[in-house]
């Protein structure tokens, strides 16, 4: 496989704009307040980092480079589309696998748009070890979320929040065909996740792809930049 010049140029254009808008440190309080003020429905989400980046794409990147929100397949909406479709993901440095999107949605997108690209922001996090960020975030939300109520019922511990994220690297991955998707699975850098798993209410979870970022072959990588 060779990298298409069109995809490479478009990826470079988007990454250049991302670099302009990504701060050295993203504080959870600031990110949540910005999302709430600017009308994001996801400001209450516990995993705020990924949602903040999605919001950044919508509010800053698309208006600057052109394009629109990407196609929808069921409950999956890809982050942006110019000539090509791109989705932005956040990867915590030191973790093994990065969860991508619904398997069916990815396959449909590759078929319909001749591939899919992933813009991956990798970095480290400072955790909310004393619980002050969680307390503040919960106070902003008001009533407990359904997720929190179910967690308490199950007696499950509260997941440790991230309160600051430090972006360190931008990686652009392009998967052009269903054959390449299958080859990634065969070679071990791409695989399914949560097949057969159920939600707390008993419903089956949709299977998603996950990717081992540091093992993606070079011919699938358009750019790899240290911030």
3D architecture notes:
With 227 residues, this protein is of the alpha+beta class. It has one domain (5-226). Helices cover 37% and strands 27% of the residues. It has 7 helices and 11 strands. Strands 1, 4, 5, 7, 8 and 11 form a 6-stranded mixed β-sheet that branches. A 3-stranded antiparallel β-sheet has the order 6-10-9. The chain has a two-stranded antiparallel sheet with strand order 2-3. A hairpin with a 3-residue loop joins strand 4 and strand 5. It is globular.
Give descriptors for this structure.
7 helices; alpha+beta; six-stranded mixed beta sheet; 227 residues; globular; 11 strands; 37% helix
Could you say which overall geometry the principal axes of the C-alpha atoms support? globular
Low-confidence stretches: none
Q: Give the ordered list of helices and strands.
A: HEHHEEEEEHEHHEHEEE
Category by helix and strand content: alpha+beta
């Amino acid at each position: 496989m060779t990298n298409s010049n069109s995809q490479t140029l478009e990826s470079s254009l988007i990454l250049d704009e991302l670099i302009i808008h990504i701060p050295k440190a993203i504080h959870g309080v600031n990110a949540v307040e910005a999302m709430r003020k600017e009308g994001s429905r996801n400001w209450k989400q516990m995993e705020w980092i990924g949602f903040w980046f999605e919001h950044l794409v919508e509010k800053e990147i698309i208006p600057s480079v052109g394009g629109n929100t990407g196609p929808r397949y069921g409950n999956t909406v890809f982050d942006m589309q110019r000539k090509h479709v791109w989705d932005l993901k956040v990867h915590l440095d030191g973790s093994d696998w990065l969860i991508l999107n619904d398997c069916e949605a990815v396959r449909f997108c590759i078929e319909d748009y001749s591939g899919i690209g992933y813009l991956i922001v990798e970095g480290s996090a400072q955790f909310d070890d004393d619980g002050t960020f969680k307390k503040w975030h919960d106070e902003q939300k008001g009533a407990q979320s359904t997720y929190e109520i179910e967690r308490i019922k199950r007696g499950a511990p509260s997941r440790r929040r991230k309160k600051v994220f430090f972006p360190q690297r931008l990686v652009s991955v392009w998967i052009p065909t269903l054959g390449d998707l299958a080859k990634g699975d065969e070679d071990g850098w791409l695989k399914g996740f949560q097949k057969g798993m159920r939600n707390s209410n008993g419903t089956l979870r949709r299977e998603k792809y996950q990717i081992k970022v540091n093992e993606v072959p070079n011919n699938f990588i358009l750019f790899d930049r240290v911030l």
